Amino acid sequence: MLELAFWGYGTAALAFFFFGLYVFFAWRGGLPGGVLLVAVMLSCLWAATEASSVYFTGAPWPVLGVLLDCLRGAAWFAFLIVLMRPLWGARVRWPAYLAAGVVGSQLASLAFEVFVPGIVLPIRPILVAWLAHAVVGLMFIEHLYRALPDASRWGIKPLCIGLGAGYIFELYLFADAALFNRIDLDVIAVRGVAHALLIPLIALSGTRSPTWTLRMAVSREVVFHSAALAAAGVYLLVIAAVAYYVRYFGESWGRALQMALLFGGLVLLGALLFSGSQRARLRVLLSKHLFPYRYDYRTEWLRFTQALAAADKGLDLGQSVVKALSDLVESPGGALWLRDSYGKFAPYARLNRPAIDAVESMDSGLCRFLDEREWIIDLEEYRSRPRYYDGLVLPDWLSSLPDAWLVIPLRSTDSLLGFVVLATPRAPFEVDWEVLDLLKTAQRQAAGYLERMLAAEALLEARKFDSFNRMSAFIVHDLKNLVAQLSLMLKNAERHGHKPEFQQDMLETVSHVESRMRGLMTQLQEKRPIDSPRGVDIVQILRTVCESKRSQSPVVQLLDPLPHQAMVLAHPERLERIIGHVVQNALDATNEDGKVTAQLSLAGDGKVSLVIADTGCGMSADFLRDRLSRPFQTTKASGMGIGVFETRQYLNEIGGDLQFESEVGQGTRATILLPCLSDGRQDLQDGASEIHA
Fold first, then answer.
1. Comparing 111-115, 302-306, 335-339, which segment has the lowest mean pLDDT?
2. Can you tell me whether residue 567 is helix, strand or coil?
3. DSSP 3-state assignment of 539?
4. How far is Cα 78 from Cα 86, in angstroms, rounded to an integer?
5. Residue 637 burial (C-beta neighbours within 10 Å; 0-12, 13-18, 19+)
6. Which residues have CB under 8 Å from 320's CB, separation 6+?
7. Phi/psi of residue 128, each to 5°?
């Protein structure tokens, strides 16, 4: 008994100490909270003193324990009186007088026991005083509970149950002691544990009673896991008791049957703990009976937002929306319908559901109802009371789904974006006003996420089309130039078609045009450059371009002797095309008696400079500054205005540049800068040396 008393009172002291810390940090200055804190701390000191008196048997310890017990009882009386004060007004004085009298009689009895130990009485006065203490405590509890209106008893009920149970324990202990004039050691040994068991009920009332000015909160997760662990513990105790009974009466086969029973019980416990339906039943039961609201909105909202934000962790955004909504109502899953570009609602995502190919049009009865009313359709309620839904007729595919439960609209700011059909919940789940309000708020946030996702997909698709259209415009521009070459060749064929050298030149031109057109078609189909950047001989490219333009007037002149080879890093096809653009622009701007020149040299910073100069019409400073490099800006009647834009864009991609100098009536000077390879620099230097020599 001494060992049991020590551990019992020690455990009670620790429990009251931690509860006192919790009350201290939750206290916001209110009188009830302050008195509660004093009562809890005195209870902690009392339990610690009683645990110490088990091993320290000197005179001060038992007397100090009884003294702290009196003060503890007085503090709990004061707490009850403070709670009764707003209810009774001035009449609360008589409970205060009664409590003071009881505590005074306890202290007087203690003094009598200490200072007059030799007198033997039939009944010890201190036992009678403690018996009166328990009776008065029960009176306070009864008056406090009855004085409250029915609607307000919910918050104070756990406190009344807890303290009432404590006073009943005291009444039994001291009634037995007063009857037989001795203390039952078995009961007194567990007295500390009995009072410590009342702490959860007191804390629960603290969370329900804001008038105490305490910010006490019991997390639903803590309650859920605590209840699950408590149920598991009771289950294991029952299994252990049954197993012990089987072993005790089972003779030779009892131990084997005991082991089989224990193993089967553990397996069943594991199945129950990991069962989604059983966990859902427990969560619904606790939320219904222990909390004023079904949901902890802060926890639910954080979990809902996290589920939507973590859409890339195994689930896409559509599945995450279904999961987030289904978790709010203990549903195992469902399916999501979204509006497509044709104005129909088609299946977009599903979670733990078979595939469904049903499609709803925007003008169907279901979609119009969801869009106009924004109601959540409870299919069970619809089947039993369809008149609540104002003549709504559900489509056949929805009515035929055996486990369909809720239809939740997903409405954006201006229109219906889609809807979710959730499956029947794992446990019986009542859909009340609180559930409907939470789902309506959650569906708006989910619709916002989905709307942004669809907008991002539409923007990406628009960018792809824009890229494709831009590339197509470049290719059409090249085709226009090739067609111009063929037209010029046909025009000259009327005068020079009988000449063998013209016929040979015509065949080469047709072959070149055919090769270029085939390359352009390949690039259009593959949507990427035909080859990767590599070393290209800029001298050969320039000769090819000038050779292809020799049928036009004026003829392009190559200034200074060109080096044998100069290597730059580029795409052969694209480099030839952009040089051809610049040369063709110079030819178009120059009369037949004008002059177009091309000069290749070594520039600074490891670049090759190609200068195309003409004596044509030139460009104004405003056009050169504001319009030349912008797409679809041109001074030519039949031009498209994208040649310079494409040239500058490509040169920037490979580390080059395009520069213009022009004056109206004086001509234009276009400089193409290209990054050169080391051997290209050497070739250009050798060519320059030959020129100077």
1. 111-115
2. strand
3. helix
4. 14
5. exposed
6. 307, 308, 310, 311
7. -65, -40
User: H/E element holding 597?
Assistant: strand 596-603
In the chain, what is the greatest distance between 2 CA atoms, to the nearest angstrom? 154
Q: How far apart are CA 660 and CA 668, in angstroms?
A: 7
Task: Please tell me the distance from the alpha carbon of residue 472 to that of residue 520, in angstroms, as a whole number.
Answer: 9
409 contacts 419 by C-beta, under 8 angstroms? yes
d(Cα 674, Cα 196) in Å, to the nearest integer?
Answer: 86
Q: Identify the pLDDT of residue 688.
A: 43
- 403: CB partners within 8 A, 6+ apart: 423, 424
Q: Which long-range contacts (CB under 8 A, 24 or more apart) does 270-273 make?
A: 273/228, 273/232
Query: pLDDT value at position 530?
Result: 45
Classify residue 368 by burial, with Cβ atoms within 10 Å: 0-12, 13-18, 19+: middle
AA letter at 56: F
Cβ atoms 616, 668 nearer than 8 A? yes
CB neighbourhood size of 436 (10 A): 15
In this structure, of 9-18, 177-186, 396-405, 652-661, the range with the lowest mean pLDDT score is 177-186
Helix (H) or strand (E) holding 371: helix 365-373
Please state whether beta strands 596-603 and 657-663 pair in parallel, antiparallel, or not at all (unpaired): unpaired
Burial 594-615 (b: 16+ CB within 10 A, else e): bbbbbbbbbbeeebbbbbbbbb
Helix/strand number for the chain, H first, E second: 24, 13
CA distances (Å), 201 to each of 40, 74, 157, 162, 662, in order?
13, 20, 9, 6, 91
pLDDT tens digits, 246-300: 666 655 555 566 566 666 666 766 666 666 666 656 655 655 555 555 666 667 7
First-to-last CA distance in the chain? 120
- What is the structure's pLDDT at 692? 36
The identity of residue 665, as a single letter, is G
Q: Where does 274-383 show beta strands of DSSP type E?
A: 334-339, 344-351, 360-361, 377-378
CA distance 494 to 552: 15
Contact between residue 321 and residue 450 where contact means Cβ atoms under 8 Å apart: yes
Q: What angle do CA 510, 515, 517 make, to 5 degrees?
A: 95
Residues contacting 158, CB < 8 A, separation 6+: 201, 202, 204, 205, 208
Instruction: With a cut of 80, say whether residue 523 has pLDDT above it.
Output: no
Nearest one of 345, 348, 344 to 334, comparing CA atoms? 348
Which residue in this structure is represented by tokens 């969801």? 370
Tell me the C-alpha distance between 588 and 150, whole Å.
97
Give me the sign of the Cα torsion angle 626, 629, 633, 636: positive
What are residue 606's phi and psi, to 5 degrees?
70, 40
Radius of gyration of the chain (CA): 46
Task: Report in angstroms the alpha-carbon separations of 234 from 192, 194, 240, 599.
Answer: 22, 18, 10, 96
